[in-house]
TrEMBL record:
Record Gene3D superfamilies: Aspartate/ornithine carbamoyltransferase
Family: Belongs to the aspartate/ornithine carbamoyltransferase superfamily. ATCase family.
Residues involved in L-aspartate binding: 87, 175, 227
Top-level taxon of origin: Bacteria
Substrates-to-products reaction catalysed: carbamoyl phosphate + L-aspartate = N-carbamoyl-L-aspartate + phosphate + H(+)
Associated pathway: Pyrimidine metabolism; UMP biosynthesis via de novo pathway; (S)-dihydroorotate from bicarbonate: step 2/3
Keywords: Pyrimidine biosynthesis, Transferase
Signal peptide feature range: none
Pfam families given in the database record: OTCace (PF00185), OTCace_N (PF02729)
Species of provenance: Streptococcus dentapri
Protein name (database record): Aspartate carbamoyltransferase
């Protein structure tokens, strides 16, 4: 992976850990250029992209598809339910097939942590892998759109340096939290973690401080809420919606204590009245819709970087 004159060039994008700070800022700035209509982009040949989603998705799947179509890529339909996976084909063999067909980029979401390792280590598979989320592992395109949203808001204040950011909720099961805590710490942000003890692990202590949401809500610049990931729970921490909301969620009272220029983020989908009070989803401090919109443009920047890597 290289950056030349601000142009990022990638073979794959599977984690945030493998991106340098320069590459992260390059992708954010390019995402902004796409958003503001300032980016020149032209394909030198026909390129094929396939979106393989083995777990449910609305935002990631559809915003990659919009990004691909905006860039003029040929998008290959793939439905896991009607594919040869039903005949016992493995993920590896499915991607080997895509590569043999000449698909240039595979965007993949899969429930298995680190599913991408055997794909990017393969000597035969030529297609580039973009991780659209692996189990409870990483979600790099979500992290980049979150960073783009924060950058847009605070760039006058040196972007991430010394920003106070609380990540609140189901941290253990969240690939968004894991991607973001690593990169935000590296970019100089001051991190805090809030939420149920059952969904927190001491391994996160190297990135920030774990404390009750009520001790920090009035001091943060960014309150990053997380979805409660029922599908990844194994009985640990079962809360009623009302109890979770009262103890850990964004109530009206907590919203009213936020600083004037603080923003609320959530990767969505949102469990309304659980992580966040229903009518706060679209409140003035909420950037949840802006995150979804930025997702298209930062994904254009990611796809362009992969195409740069093929040039
Ligand atoms: N934020 C996010 O990944 O949403 P989807 O699951 O809808 O893609």
């Amino acid at each position: 992976m290289v950056v030349t004159n601000g142009i990022v060039s990638l073979k794959h994008l599977v984690t945030m850990e493998t991106l340098s700070n320069e590459e992260v800022l390059g992708l954010i700035k390019r995402g902004l250029a796409f958003k503001q209509g300032r980016a020149d982009f032209k394909l030198d040949r026909q390129y094929f992209a396939a979106n393989l989603f083995f777990e449910s998705s609305t935002r990631t799947h559809k915003s990659f598809e919009v990004a691909e179509k905006k860039l003029g890529l040929s998008v290959i339909e793939f439905d896991a339910k009607t594919s040869s996976l039903n005949k016992g084909e493995t993920l590896y063999d499915t991607i080997l097939t895509m590569s043999a067909l000449g698909v240039d980029i595979c965007v993949i979401r899969h429930s298995q942590d680190d599913y991408y390792k055997e794909l990017i280590d393969s000597r035969t598979i030529q297609t580039s892998i973009v991780n659209g989320g692996d189990g409870s592992g990483q979600h790099p395109s979500q992290s980049l759109l979150d960073l783009m949203t924060i950058y847009q808001e605070f760039q006058e204040f040196a972007a991430f340096e010394n920003l106070k950011i609380a990540i609140a909720g189901d941290i253990t099961h969240s690939r968004v939290a894991k991607s973001n805590m690593q990169i935000l710490k590296r970019l100089g942000a001051q991190l805090y973690f809030c939420g149920p003890e059952e969904w927190y692990s001491l391994e996160f202590d190297v990135y920030g401080q774990y404390l009750p949401i009520d001790e920090i809500v009035d001091q943060v610049d960014v309150l990053m809420l997380l979805r409660v990931q029922h599908e990844r729970h194994d009985g640990r921490g079962s809360f009623s919606k009302e109890n979770y909301h009262r103890l850990y969620g964004l109530t009206q009272e907590r919203y009213d204590r936020l600083k004037d220029n603080a923003i609320i983020m959530h990767p969505a989908p949102v469990n309304r009245n659980v992580e966040i009070k229903d009518d706060l989803v679209e409140a003035p401090k909420s950037r949840i819709a802006a995150q979804m919109q930025n997702g298209v443009f930062v994904r254009m920047a990611i796809l362009e970087a992969i195409l740069n890597g093929k040039a």
